[in-house]
Structure of Phospho-2-dehydro-3-deoxyheptonate aldolase:
Amino acid sequence: MTAASPTQNLNVTGFDPLISPGGLNEALPISAAAAATVTRGRDDIQRILRGDDPRLLAVVGPCSIHDVDAAGEYAQRLAALAEEVSDRLLVVMRVYFEKPRTTVGWKGLINDPFLYSDRVFDMNTGIRRARELLMRIAELGLPAGTEFLDPFTPQYLDDLVSWAAIGARTTESQTHRQMASGLSMPVGFKNATTGDLQVALDAMKSAMAPHHFVGIDEEGHAAVVHTRGNAYGHAILRGGHSATNYAPEDIAAAAGRLVAAGLNPQLMVDCSHANSGKKHTAQAKVWDSVLAQRAAGQRALVGVMLESNLEPGNQGVPTGPNGRPDASKLLRGVSITDACIGFEETQRLLRAAQA
Ligand SMILES: O=C[C@H](O)[C@H](O)COP(=O)(O)O
Ligand SMILES: C=C(OP(=O)(O)O)C(=O)O
C-alpha cells in the first residue's frame, strides 16, 4: 500500500475493493413483491406510530444472523405466525447483520460471513448474503427490521428494510443521528447502556432535522449527503447497567419526558438486553408486563422487541482440531451472540397478545 503522505495511515494495513451499492442493487434488484412488502410494512408502522392503527408493533427475531439458511426457515415460520396474529400484532422480523460489540467479538454477517474461518472478513460476500436474505424475507410478505451500524450500509440495504434501530452504543453518536435523518423507514433509538434515556430523546430531535455530511453515493463514491430528516423516530427502552425500565412507572415517566421534550410519546420495550439481564428465560416476564400495561390502557407502549431463534439459548463457536474456531460444528438455529427464546416460546408469547 502506498501512503498518500508519510504521516498518513500508519495503523492501516490494507484496503480491499468493495462492490458499490449500485453494483449490488443491479445484481440483486428489488422485486415487485419485495417492494410491496417493504412499502406496506413502513406504512403500517407509521400508522402505529401516529396512533392510527391500534395494533402492537412486534420486532421479533434472532439476535444476529449467522446462518442464512436457518434464518430463511425462521422467516417462513414467522411469516405464518405473523399472518395468524395480524389482527392484533404487526410482526416485523428482526434481521440483524451488524453487531456493535462492547469491546471485541464477531461483528456480524456483513463483516465476517465465514465466521473466523480462513476466509475472514469477506464483506463483499457478507453484504450480498444480507441483501439476498432480506429479499427472500420480503418476498414472503414479512417486513424486516435491522440495526444500521456502519453509516455506509444503508446504501446497500435500505430499500429492503421497513424498520430500523440505532443501538444503545451509538444513539449518542452524531454520525448515526445524521444517518437516521436520511433513512427511508421509521427508526427506533435505544436508551444508552447506562440506562440514560436523554440520549434517545436527543437523537429523535437530531434525526428529525435535515443534515449534510460525508457519505457515499450509489456508485460508492465519496459524497456530501443531504437529508430531509426522519419524522418517525421513536425511543426503545432496553434497560441499563443498574436497572430495567419497562415497569408501569418507567413507561409513564418516559412518556412524560417525551411529551415535555415536545416529542410524541411512543415507546418500544426491548424484552431482551438489560431488561432481561441477557437471560432469554426472562424475556417472557417483560413481554407479559407490556401486554398487561396495554390491557390497562397504556397507549404510549406501541412496540415491543423479542430476541428469538429456531432454538432457545446461545452457543459459543466451537474449536476445531487445528485449535481455530470451527463454525461447521455449530448447532443449527441457535444464536451465537445473545441468548434467544426458541420458536415454540415465540409462538406462545405472540398468540397470547390480545386484540
Ligand atoms: O445484542 C447483542 C449484544 O448485546 C451487543 O452486540 C453487545 O454484545 P457484547 O457485550 O457481547 O459485545
Ligand atoms: C445490540 C443490541 O442491543 P443494544 O443496542 O440495546 O445493546 C441489539 O438489539 O442487537
Remarks:
- The longest helix spans residues 32-50.
